[in-house]
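Handout, page 2. Input:
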Amino acid sequence: MNKKILFLLLFLTPAVFPQLGDFLFKTSGNELYLQMYGETVDPFAPFDAKNSIQKVKKITKPVITDKKLTVNATPVDFKIFKSSVKGLASFTIYYSEKKENYLIHLKFENANSFKNLQSFIGTLFEEVKVKNGPEGLSYRKGTYMYDLTGTGTKAPGDVTILTDSRPGKNEAFIGIIADPASYQSCVDFNYPKIEVDLKAMSEQKIFEYYNNMASELYELVVVAQEYYKKPKTQNGGGNSFEGFIIPENMKQTQNCVFGIDAITTGEIILTATTKLDIIGQDGKTPLKVRFVTRPDDMQPEVVN
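Output:
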């Protein structure tokens, strides 16, 4: 049976996956691991640490070199570790100061394996907007626990993945610095040149949050319409939105805060502003949506 390389998400709860293959990424306890031939290794462990990648014996015999590379105009000592899983992927790991993991460069020989990686990171990493760069490059980031210096204590930090699906590429670069500029400043990394907006979400991600916020705001819209139609003798508006006050138990949810932008006899504009760290389309202020609400219809809109 031909064994294929698979990149899969393994949750904390026990799970069984048939034919896992010999090479995969997995997560556990908010840590990112690499599994090769059944051995779990920490891709961000120091070079000489227990369970670090060079301890795996079944990979192709590694080539290890020491080299001084220039990063951000500063000479840095690197230990470069090159190996591969035959017929599936080759990889190069750059350890800065010959110890701390800095960058992992993966080259896939198997196109399906690369697609599996893209699926994996699409689930676990948030997309970062690429402002300038050739088509076929995708940049994502996430926060995972790691111990770069071998202190024995893991702390949360940025993990970024750039995938390069341009013709003839099928490559990925995994690093521990959010801004790609540090990788691009060293020609030896062969890192594609891009500019990213680390604060701006992709349009698709904003749309997903917008849908969630609109769904929660819709419940308040229904309450306002009921108020409009209820007689004043029953504490309603008597065919008017004027006097409507957001009920105390509906002023906010876990995700957003609700408000009233404007109110007239026949129309009320209800808003939802995110409580999360989500910047809207202007790239400056929090994501905000609203419903222009009338007695029998409503119009959802993105304010920002």
